[in-house]
Amino acid sequence: MKQEAAFFDGKEPVLIYIAKRLRDALKLETLLTEASLDYGVEADEYRGGIIFATTRTGAFFYVLPDSEPAALEIMRRGGYKPYAGAAGRALPPANRPGI
């Protein structure tokens, strides 16, 4: 279930996915909600492009570490490729935007 920022207070959420399109974000929200997994999502900026790098806005999905294996399995079954850093490691606070 989608959680507000307060749910993650004092915890180390793990970034599992950055949705670049609204359609992808909505589908992933549906998958995670149907599985009754607690997750957070927020809009934030990321760098995209190789030759002409630009700053873009995407939907960043987070879960708590104990929910990460289930979330990653649900994503894989739904055809999503998890965020490259999602391998049981939380992002350091300096690199993780507020939820």
Brief digest:
With 99 residues, the chain is α+β, with helices and mostly antiparallel strands. It has helices spanning 22-34, 68-77; strands at residues 14-19, 40-48, 54-63.
Topology:
Elements: E1 14-19, H1 22-34, E2 40-48, E3 54-63, H2 68-77
Antiparallel strand pairs: 1-3, 2-3
Commentary on this structure:
This protein has a 3-stranded antiparallel sheet with strand order 1-3-2. With 99 residues, it is of the alpha+beta class. It has a domain at 1-53. The longest helix is centred in the N-terminal third of the chain and has 13 residues, at 22-34. It has helices at residues 22-34, 68-77; strands at residues 14-19, 40-48, 54-63. The protein has 2 helices and 3 strands, in the order E-H-E-E-H.
Poorly predicted ranges = 90-99
Distance between the termini: 15 Å
Strand arrangement in the largest pleated sheet: 1-3-2
Structural class: alpha+beta
Oligomeric state of the chains in view: single chain
Question: Would you count the extended β strands for me?
Answer: 3
- Can you summarize the main beta sheet? 3 strands, antiparallel
Mean pLDDT: 86
Radius of gyration: 13 Å
Inertia-based shape: globular
Q: Give the H and E element order.
A: EHEEH
- The amount of helix comes to 10-25%
